[in-house]
């Protein structure tokens, strides 16, 4: 009885989380442009997708920003973890506190603060400013993923490598990196996802004519969104779903990756 | 391994892209056109329209935070039960939806909740009366709970899985029943996760302008909408910055409370 109730609750919550996704997938196959009328099954929005330059260019921008910002954030964040780990308690608390700011702060405040800063220093808003903003809010996720792995590590293996004649750089890549890898990868994935899904910070830091998928959706809301965007989202969602299932089906070893 | 100086690039980055930008808000919020100190931008929060938007934001975000907590705690307990080693399953469930654009997902709720929408079609099928929820404060709370629920579940789950079974067993051995074990042992030990979750839901709910725009139909004005309009359509940076300073007071209180329970933010994700 108790177990049945747990199952029902879990199913209800999953339904709640995934209901809008289901709606979007259904709408991407809707012949009619309307969001409330079903006009019959059609693949025309998928066909439109690949010839629609506005959508394709927004997709390119989104992916470039997500990839570059996640990559730079991963390098910055991993290095920072190694440094922070060596600090004494007081400076460490200060740095970790600062690290929490972009994550805990409201997106709107982060967005306008960066916008004001760019404008005040005469930087024209563009794709580059969006990139800088995304790196800023991505690093904390990397640090929070890598830090626990670093704490779990035994410092003695690194020292042993040095005693056996490895150079610090060689020892780092051969001994430390493999242990940190699950944390680094999950940090990268987290950062990539956050960048991909961001709207508010991009909204304030982007320049004229530069659109990510989120800002494109927002600007189309009033005119009525073309279902092409549903088709694109469906494709992205399904490809990640398949990818994650593939990773998870391979048991044990790969499991830490998306922890 | 590593040196302290490895953290230097990031520290410089934080100063340049976090500290200085926040200082810019303080500067614009506390000065007038000539650059002289003034409190008039901040005082704008007292005008009837702005004060109403602020209190409505506080009210709606308190309600949505409470609903999130009530929904998330049992969910986190259940997930803990089914996945001792399959940590990734939980992250999987909550991170995956983010790959479908969040604005589109919020839009989808518009489709579901609208007067001729999916929800009313289902209700009509069962002969139940239709609900008129779209473009009301209720729809906004609905959207907030939907968008931010994962940020409540993950921290609570992360703390719950760290509570050893031995502690629960010990409580039971000492004669506590299920309820007592929960309220005297499990719940107090999960407080850091609960506080993280509350902060992670309250701050974005309180400051959103997207959800109120999409699900409130522009009829319900939250403080986030007022600030966004000051920057985009009004181009009144000083007013926007002044109101943001008021908002930051709420954010800093939340962050201070969180810092007390979880200094390194280790439960957040």
Topology of helices and strands:
The complex is a heterodimer of chains A (259) and B (269).
Chain A: H1 2-28, H2 44-51, H3 53-86, H4 89-104, H5 107-120, H6 127-152, H7 155-163, H8 168-197, H9 200-205, H10 213-220, H11 228-249
Helix pairs in contact in A: 1-11, 2-11, 3-6, 3-8, 4-6, 6-8, 7-8
Chain B: H1 8-29, H2 40-43, H3 48-82, H4 87-95, H5 102-113, H6 118-125, H7 137-160, H8 165-173, H9 178-189, H10 191-207, H11 210-215, H12 223-231, H13 237-261
Helix pairs in contact in B: 1-13, 3-7, 3-10, 5-7, 7-10, 8-9, 10-13, 12-13
What is the annotated CATH architecture of the largest domain in chain A?
Orthogonal Bundle
CATH class type of the largest domain in chain A: Mainly Alpha
Largest sheet of chain A: none
Radius of gyration of chain A: 22 Å
What is the global morphology of chain A?
A: globular
Comma- or semicolon-separated keywords:
heterodimer, A: 259 residues, mainly alpha, MetI-like fold, 11 helices, disordered C terminus, B: 269 residues, 0% strand
